[in-house]
Amino acid sequence: MFRSAAKLAARGCRASAGVTGKTVMAGTRRQMSISVNVEQKALFSELGEGSMWWAERSALLFLDIMKGHIKIYNPESGELDIHHIGKPVGTVVLRNSSNSDEAILLGTKDGIEEYNVETRKLVPLAPVEAELDGNRANDGKCDPQGRFWLGTMSLTLERGAGHLWFFDENGKVSQRCSEHSFSVCNGITWSQDLKHMYFVDSPVGS
User: Fold this and answer.
1) Which of 15, 43, 150, 172 is the most buried (most CB within 10 A)?
2) Model confidence pLDDT, tens digit, residues 44-70
3) Do residues 165 and 185 touch, judged by C-beta distance below 8 A?
4) Which residues contact 68 (CB under 8 A, 6 or more apart)?
5) What is the pTM of this model?
6) Per DSSP, which regions of 67-176 are E strands?
């Protein structure tokens, strides 16, 4: 079970692939032969985002942002489970917890929320830009320490309306790079030595 709401911070979320600090083979001369079987599936989304493999459920997890759908596809059974959140959901990350096969962390129109795919219960953890009705969460990732970083953007794609937010291990949200504004924060990732975080502002190409 999870701890109290005050402890439901991103400390328990799972770092994205490639930011765990492990050595990567890219750039070396060693060659490997990999056989890949590619299948086309009719998993249409109006604005698809956040696809990742959910190992505990042996399924593909992804979003349809503006429809507020969380989609879980099991390639073994061919079953597609759609969860209707009822609001735009911009990003999803997995949790490291006792019920990591059920609970996920979301960046939604209202902020940072936890969702349980078994009970279908949505639990608000921290509001983000609640005073800005025209904004929503966009891309978000967990850093190697398991803390959640979240970018926001305007629903009308207004330039400079977005910001970068940080959800710490105590459940506190704070704005980062507050001297700057962004349009669409995207592609959050970390350098291999874990010393630098990178992200892009898509519309302005920076």
Assistant:
1) 150
2) 777 767 788 998 899 999 999 899 999
3) no
4) 84, 85, 86, 87, 88, 89, 108
5) 0.75
6) 69-74, 79-84, 89-94, 103-108, 111-116, 121-127, 135-142, 148-154, 164-167, 173-176
CA distance 132 to 111: 11
pLDDT tens across 64-100, in order? Answer: 989 999 999 999 998 999 999 999 999 999 877 666 7
Range scoring the smallest mean pLDDT among 30-34, 113-117, 155-159, 166-170: 30-34
CA dihedral 62, 1, 110, 56 (to 10 degrees): -10
Strand-pairing partners, residue 186, are 200
The token pair at 53 is 């493999």
DSSP labels for 40-59? Answer: ------TTEEEEEEEGGGTE
Helical (H) or strand (E) element with 198:
strand 197-201
